[in-house]
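Appendix B. Chain record.
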Amino acid sequence: MPLFGRPDGVLAERVPLVRRFMPFLMRRRNESAVWFEQDVAADAALAFAESFSSIHGVRLTFFHLVLRGIACVLEEFPRLNRYVVGRRLYQRTSIAISFSGKEAFDDEAPLYVRKRIFDPREPLEALARSLGESVRSGRAGERTPSDHEMSLLTRLPRPAVDGVVAAGRLLDYFNLLP
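Structure tokens predicted for this chain:
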């Protein structure tokens, strides 16, 4: 892997002109966000998860099914798995989904964040076991390399953190972030 550049994507090819121009019009993530509400009938999925769990001896939840569904959609429609950096459009080279949860069922409990690479062909039983382990490690308070980096940065004075973040954004814009 090269020292600089995008480790998680490649420049998207054959992008229509209008689509290439959009990052200049909508400069921030929330400028292009679309919010909507939808009710989803989940009874059949919940029944499937319960049945699967009892047959395979692994805890499968609705959350697992939602993540699996997202991964399958991103596999089938890869153009949904794109992102913008430096006003350029990149195609992700994998299906990576981040999720967060609470360490305990308490309003004051700290959050944990986990990122996982998904293979839509992975057996559902293996996915349930792996995600279960990720959740257990998060609830146990195990720290990730990102947690250690943020802990180090937040020890700096606020102006220094602002400077480090600004430098990171500038390097990222020019595809020079190590």
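Further analysis of this model is presented in Appendix C.
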